[in-house]
Amino acid sequence: MITLKDIVKTYRVGIQELTVLKGVSLHIQEGDFVAIMGQSGSGKSTLMNIIGLLDVPTSGEYILDGKNVEDLRSDDQAEIRGKKIGFVFQSYNLLPRMSAIKQVALPLMYQGVKREERNRLAAEALKSVGLEDKMQNRPNELSGGQQQRISIARAVVTNPALILADEPTGALDSTTGEEVMDIFTELNRQGKTIVLITHERTIAEHAHKIIHLSDGKIVEN
Known about the structure:
Helix content: 25-40%
Number of domains: 1
Strand order of the largest sheet: 6-7-8-3-9-10
CATH class: Alpha Beta
Strand content: 25-35%
Radius of gyration: 17 Å
Number of strands: 10
Order of helices and strands: EEEHEEHEHHHEHEHEE
Number of helices: 7
Structural class: alpha/beta
CATH topology: Rossmann fold
CATH superfamily: P-loop containing nucleotide triphosphate hydrolases
Largest sheet: 6 strands, mixed
């Protein structure tokens, strides 16, 4: 599903250049559950952004579903992001004045799905993460764990093949974090490919494969 070959990412900071990724190569098969571990500054979030088509490498090759990403037009990349990739972030990224069901239905609205259908799909997604009784609640009426469940429901409502989760338990206590990881485990059991970024070993151990990043390079365990 995903092949990265010698990915380099360099940012220009003033007159200096900062190389964040230094020749990263990896292969992720359909249905994999992969955790990417590393300390702050190791390059893991940059790698996630490249996999999610939110950033582009300075050099190297990214093959997604058999297609070289570099050859795709920006419109094609946007369509892939919208339909094939679901994103979950540490900070939830919820809109403060919007109910849970409207938050989850938002990606479907952008795709032109009619209101009745998108509300039905959003309700199903919320039910799948155990929030069928919180559909009309706003974020400030919910716990951190419940807010993260909403963001997971929003990520899966379009039925993407790939879910990218950047420190999804970073703002949660350990018990709630384990409950969120149980949801990812179930999604993977259903056939979703999951790539998870974390700095916590106990969270990474939910994955089938752990990749360690250090100073922009993949290192051995």
